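Standup notes, structure subgroup. Blocker cleared on the zinc ion input:
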Amino acid sequence: MVGRYDRTDKRPGKLTRRRQLSHEERKQIYERMDRRCAYCGQRLEYEDMHVDHVKPLAKGGPDIIPNMVCSCEYCNRYKGSRDVESFRRAIYRSLGALERDSLAYRNSIKYGLIRRTHAPVIFYFERKERRCKYKWKRKKSHWPKY
Ligand SMILES: [Zn+2]
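Run returned:
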């Protein structure tokens, strides 16, 4: 039987099967991301985690563990078959949509209840990578000089 998530190739009749992950593989993906959504960073219960292909299968991403991260349901659905940069642009666009369409949002800005930060969208896995590089550099600076 083919589940609804098995169809990644949009051409009729073409099905690309995703590999079934074992419990150990899912746990490995979950722990690698500190039990958080790889995109928004929200803490995740193991039962609630979704597995996302960072480079989507639909765009030729490999169906291998290094291309998989855990994410919350919301980020997984919102990202869909976008790649990371398209996902980032979609998040920026959602702010534009709020400004355009939501009177509640515009009033909240106007009365100082919320404030625009113009902060860049940096995903949790990117912040995590930066921390790892920083730690590595720090450690390296403490290495003895020969
Ligand atoms: Zn998320």
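Discussed briefly. The chain has a mean pLDDT of 85.
Next: hand off to the docking folks.
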